Amino acid sequence: MSNRLPIAEGLFTWPAKKPALLGSRCDRCGIASFPAAQSCMACGSQEVTVEELPSRGTLWTWTVQQFMPKSPYNSGETPETFRPYGVGYLELPGGVRVEGRLTESDPRKLRVGMAMDVVFDTWRTEPNGDEIVSFFFQPVA
Ligand SMILES: [Zn+2]
Q1: Which of helix, strand or coil describes residue 129?
Q2: Enclosing domain of residue 124
Q3: Which uninterrupted H or E stretch holds 31?
Q4: For 62-73, how does the pLDDT look when each residue is reduced to its tens digit (9 = 90+)?
Q5: How far is CA 124 from CA 20, 73, 74, 83, in A?
Q6: pLDDT (tens digit, 9 = 90+) per residue, 118-137?
Q7: What domain count does the chain have?
Q8: Of 101, 97, 100, which Cα lies nearest the Cα of 84?
Q9: Distance between CA atoms of residues 8 and 12, nearest Å
């Protein structure tokens, strides 16, 4: 019996039929941040509210990671099995930018400003069979 576990607590709603990223918005100045923070990075106020972020945004900038990142990167891959992947920032309505992996790694299929959905999928599988779930950005079909 394997479990599906979030890569980190508090990053997104879990378990959930339709998970959503969790950010925080400052009650005083309105600035949003991801991941959710205890206090506002802009004005220092501790009056922040955790909220679910929109699931669709636009690609703000991106690159393709061509070599395996150093520890603590832990995808279960080895330098031999590593495959390049896209990584970028998604700009969400409400003004928050979230860094994450892209489901697309072909530079010819990526461009700044394209619409992308936040999706949730297995990031790696543990030796005991547990699946570690993370979020990815996927081009809108
Ligand atoms: Zn603030």
Answers
A1: coil
A2: 4-139
A3: none
A4: 999 999 888 888
A5: 20, 11, 8, 13
A6: 999 999 999 999 999 999 99
A7: 1
A8: 101
A9: 8
Give CA–CA dist 57/59, Å, rounded: 7
Interval between CA 43 and ligand 1 midpoint (Å): 4
Cα–chain center distance at 21: 8
- Output the CA 37–ligand 1 centroid distance in Å: 11
- Report the distance separating Cα 107 and Cα 73, nearest Å: 23
Query: What letter would DSSP give residue 41?
Result: T
Q: For residue 92, how far is its CA from the centre of ligand 1 (angstroms)?
A: 18
CB count in 10 Å sphere of residue 42: 13
Which tokens go with 66?
Answer: 């061509």
pTM: 0.91
Better pLDDT: 71 or 58 = 58
CA of 77 to the centre of ligand 1 (A): 40
CA of 135 to the centre of ligand 1 (A): 26
User: Could you report the per-residue pLDDT of 84-117, keeping only the tens digit for each?
Assistant: 999 999 999 988 999 999 999 999 999 999 999 9
Centre of ligand 1 from the C-alpha of residue 134, in Å: 28
pLDDT band at residue 138 using 50, 70 and 90 as cut-offs: very high
